[in-house]
TrEMBL record:
The chain crosses the membrane at residues 51-72, 84-109, 129-148. It is a multi-pass membrane protein. The keyword Membrane applies. It comes from the Eukaryota. Its main location: membrane. This is Ion transport domain-containing protein. Keywords: Ion channel, Ion transport, Membrane, Potassium, Potassium channel, Potassium transport, Transmembrane, Transmembrane helix, Transport, Voltage-gated channel. Residues 59-142 form the Ion transport domain. InterPro entries: Ion_trans_dom, KAT/AKT. It is found in: Membrane. It holds the Pfam family Ion_trans.
Length: 151
């Protein structure tokens, strides 16, 4: 208990040791964790974090909606985009394709190098694994499956 009516402010949330270590390294180099370098965004940028939350929410929404749509969809094929389901799929594909492009402009954290802002290294790191996962998940498998019912 504080004495003489003194208030002690507690932090709203504790930061992990890895986040604190990253912030200390960045401060030693002269910039903070949310700063970007040129056209490369920091992975700690607040707008990028909001984008990631939106992507996660959209992925969870589509994970819940897609099986229902696939079970009850009529085989109209890939065209026209004139109903709710097709428009949602079009928006989702566009969002995740944009996310794939955005990932070429977001720095990544390397355990040995710290935050890497070099575009070539970012591209190589993305192509090693996550690019292929993103590509497979962005392909409109549902539309292809529905179009397959026509055959």
């Amino acid at each position: 208990m504080p004495d003489d009516g003194e208030l002690v402010q507690q932090p709203l949330r504790a930061k992990s040791s890895s986040v604190l270590a990253t912030e200390r390294l960045l401060a030693a180099k002269g910039f903070n964790a949310a700063q970007s370098k040129g056209q490369i965004l920091s992975p700690h940028n607040k707008y990028y974090k909001q984008w990631c939350l939106g992507a996660a929410a959209l992925a969870m929404l589509m994970a819940a909606i897609d099986p229902i749509h696939l079970a009850f969809a009529t085989p109209d094929g890939l065209y026209p985009y004139n109903d709710f389901w097709a428009i949602m799929e079009y928006i989702t594909m566009t969002f995740f394709a944009t996310d794939m492009v955005l990932k070429f402009f977001v720095a990544y954290i390397d355990p040995k190098l710290g935050i890497v802002y070099e575009p070539k290294l970012i591209a190589l790191n993305y192509f090693r694994f996550l690019f292929w996962v993103d590509l497979v998940t962005t392909i409109p498998i549902e539309s292809i499956a529905i179009a397959g019912k026509l055959l």
